[in-house]
Amino acid sequence: MTLAPYAADPAASRGREFAENREGTRGPRSEFQRDRDRIVHSIAFRRLKAKTQVFIAPDGDHYRTRLTHSIEVAQIGRVIARALGLDEDLTEALCLAHDIGHPPFGHAGEDALQEAMAERGGFDHNAHTLRVLMRLEAPYCDFPGLNLSWDLLEGLAKHNGPVSTPNWALAELDEAFPLDLGAWPSLEAQVAALADDIAYDNHDIDDGLRAGFLLLDDLLELPAIADQYRAIERRYPSASADQRLRELVRSRIGLMVNDVIETTRANARGLHSVAEVRAHPGQLAAFSSGMGEEERALKAFMYERLYYHPEQLMAASRARDVVSRLFAAYDQSPEALPEEWRAALPAEEPARSRHFADFIAGMTDRFAIRQCADIFGRAPDGLRNV
Known about the structure:
By secondary structure, this protein is an all-alpha fold. Helices cover 60% and strands 0% of the residues. It is built from 18 helices and no strands. It has helices at residues 31-40, 43-47, 66-84, 88-97, 106-116, 125-136, 150-158, 168-176, 187-211, 216-219, 223-235, 241-268, 274-279, 289-307, 310-332, 339-343, 351-361, 365-376. The N and C termini lie far apart (44 Å). It holds the Pfam family HD_assoc.
């Protein structure tokens, strides 16, 4: 496939933080394919299988986790990247890695860590993604982290746009390996951010309906959703309700993907290099104005009816309590840490507290629940609601 002139080129990558000795043969891969493979083979990526997407440690086998969500984001991202002539491997790697910094229990866990770390620089899952990939995940003998390409790390740092005030974690990493935080990232990174929106906007509908937290009649209050669902009813009069709902989710994804492709292609017309993308004064990958309004309306609906559902808020409150109690327990009694983490515990603040946060942020939902039971004598109640 011939890349568009504004695509990121793996042969022109800005390199890696540490020089590598690549004696021997490990396959004919581009730099961005190496990035993707290192992410897929990492322990941090595997742990996403048991981290909250919408529901905490769900008992049902069919609900999404951070891992299945990331895979779905990657597939949407690849489709958009291919249509626009972008580098699919970089796009896929960005999509697969974008949530690696999430602690257990999703944003509830993040809120608890942010509160615990408020006087020590705070906690942010986006910056922690970079910290995990550049320092904490360390399977190689020659260097810390996964030593991913500059292009991949830049995209993760700025997939939501330029960063004017990085927190301590991102600032520390940027000082070691400057990521040009004030500029826009590649189109591959911008597409990855939109693929994330498209995936969770639609797949969270599926999970919310499955759990009974959303009702179809409520969803049909949104005019764009209602029009699409009525068209599906006319097209498939004998289909079951479940089949129609799945068709609704698929068709919504298709509409949004096509809209992004058309809008972004028009916005990027006349650009001749990835350098011009980064120097552009604004975002290039985007929804059209009409689709953007629909997407914002859907997000508002999902926050009101699903993410801020009373049962969800109650579970989130209990999850925050679990993370807060774990942090306090390790702070007061570091011997509760596993031996390898205890041996590496810094003596001084803020590094000491950040060490606790690193350990907790790497936990899966179930591991955090087990740790709480081991330390306090009983497992927390009321975390699972599906």
